[in-house]
Design goal:
Helix content is about 20%, strand content about 35%. The chain starts with about 20 loop residues before the first strand and ends in a 6-residue tail after the last strand. By secondary structure, the protein is α+β, with helices and mostly antiparallel strands. It has 2 domains: about 90 residues, no CATH class; about 110 residues, no CATH class. The longest helix has 20 residues. The strands form 3 sheets. Strands 8-14-13-12-9-10-11 form a 7-stranded antiparallel sheet. Strands 4-5-6-7-3-15 form a 6-stranded mixed sheet, covered by helices on one side. A hairpin with an 8-residue loop joins strand 9 and strand 10. It contains 3 helices and 15 strands.
Amino acid sequence: MDENLTGAAGSKTPPVNPPTPRRAGGRQALGGALSGFEINTDGALLDPDWDGDVFEVHDRRYGLAISHFKSNVRGRSYDNDFVSLRVGHGGYYTQSKRFPLAFFGDSARAEVKIVDEAYARAVVWEAVAHYRSEEAQSLVCVYPSDEQDDVFLGYRSRGGRRYEYGGLRTDMPLHLRVLVESSEPVDLLGARRGVLLYQRTRSGKHVVVRAPGRRTPLLTGAFGS
């Protein structure tokens, strides 16, 4: 669909009720209804608590939930060559094209804006500042590069321990996601908690997605959510 249009996007058909997490045999399964939820693989990728082939175990743990979520969201595409971004009435999600195990999905209705480069730079700067000042649970930045691992992933566990992979750079990322957890409302969101995404599309547009508040984690991984 056309990336020029702004606002929460997708079909006018009401979204299907999302699944409720239940535990079955030590794992969470799908069924029932839940007013809001999110799927976040950050913690599991930084400190995996599984044995065996990572792709097989990831698919067993997250595959069904991710597949259900993507079919429910659909919506408008704001992709680039590195990260898929979809926003619809059923929520929104991002997924790495080079490393599909990296997935974040949220069932909230999100606000989408096309902004100019100066505004985008200010958003990125402020998001990184909130992470560095420990006002964010996690920060993901994907930079334009031929190297598969040219990405920064920082995650703060509930106990306050910080896990990081890669390094932050001064140039603009192609994709940024920050999960804000602050004691005071922040200008980025107009709320204490929430999700902010920045994406530069394949055609060069600067897209900012905001979703104040946090939803119930569907699958918690090693750190919780």
